[in-house]
Amino acid sequence: MNDQGVVRLDKVAAIFGMSKGQLAETIGLSREALYKLARLEAPKTQARLKEMLEVVSRVSDWAGGKSQAMAWYRAQPIAAFGGRTAESLVKEGQAGALRDYLDHIAQGGFA
User: Fold this and answer.
1) Domain named Antitoxin Xre/MbcA/ParS-like toxin-binding: which ranges (predicted)?
2) What digits encode the pLDDT tens for the residues 79-92?
């Protein structure tokens, strides 16, 4: 993040080897949301980016790194959510439920 608390999209894209368009798809927003400065800094866009980054960061240690965590985020079905992925949950505005689930697992709970 920069000094104003805005996610630095160029760094995020570089870390995950993704284009801005791919990142937009990953968080469930249009490409324009990440290509136009006013939309990039909008609260909804920033919230989705931060939710994705929080989830990926939280699972990166047990996933084996940030790339593997992103792969998990995008593709691994979660039985507790009917087989939906973390990506689909964030896109649907259910990041809070996903965070609660990850907290439960981190405390030794069962999936």
Assistant:
1) 62-108
2) 999 999 999 999 99
**Residue reference for tokens 């047990």:** 62
Amino acid in the structure at residue 111: A
For residue 3, what are its two tokens? 């000094």
Cβ distance 85 to 78 under 8 Å?
yes
Beta carbons within 8 Å of 42's beta carbon, 6+ residues apart: 33
pTM of the model: 0.85
With b meaning 16 or more CB within 10 Å and e meaning fewer, what string describes 33-47? Answer: bbeeeeebeeeebee
| Contact yes or no for 27/48 (Cβ under 8 A) | yes
* Angle at alpha carbon of residue 63, lines to 62 and 68, rounded to 5°: 160
The pLDDT of residue 102: 93
